[in-house]
Amino acid sequence: MKYKWLDVAKKIQAIAQSGLAYTTNKYDAERYEELRKISIEIVSDFTGMEMERVEELFANETGYQTPKVDVRAVVFKDNKILLVKEKVDGCWALPGGWADIGLSPGQVAMKETYEEAGLEVKPVRLLAVLDNKNHYRVPFPYHIYKIFILCKIVSGRLAGGMETSDADFFAEDGLPKLSQGRNTVKQIKMMFDLFKNPTKQAVFE
Fold this sequence. Notes:
With 205 residues, this protein is of the alpha+beta class.
């Protein structure tokens, strides 16, 4: 129940966004806009974030609202996993980010790995599709699906990028401090388990 009001605000926002996208009645549009403002006020009050910032992050989309998609590349070498060091918090995560329009999940994994770690990779198989609300204690203003794709190294040399300062491979028992909003220790260990057991089906939860 701790984050009940944040969940309520997200549902209100989704209803308002869909209503604004499809209504042809200006009076209904005004009501949906008012609902959107209420959702922004709830999130601002809950998080302490300025309303302008909440509106930018939380209520800036149009059309029918759907979950955001975060794609993560899972790359192993010598039984170690590839992680990149995020400039924003100095912590480590699997290379990846928001899915790009026009690219398949595999193409996103390839693009992000090259941009963040300097490696060209090839998608091999889907490892997991996870719903953020089932894996994080800290709430997000978005409903997010995370897609984890096993990739094979083709070429390249480890290097940081615009959003990352470093890239390296880590053993399961020697993980660095993780960027928790991006990946958890439980998720990284799940990737090791799926890699070691290639006959296991992809996880979805």
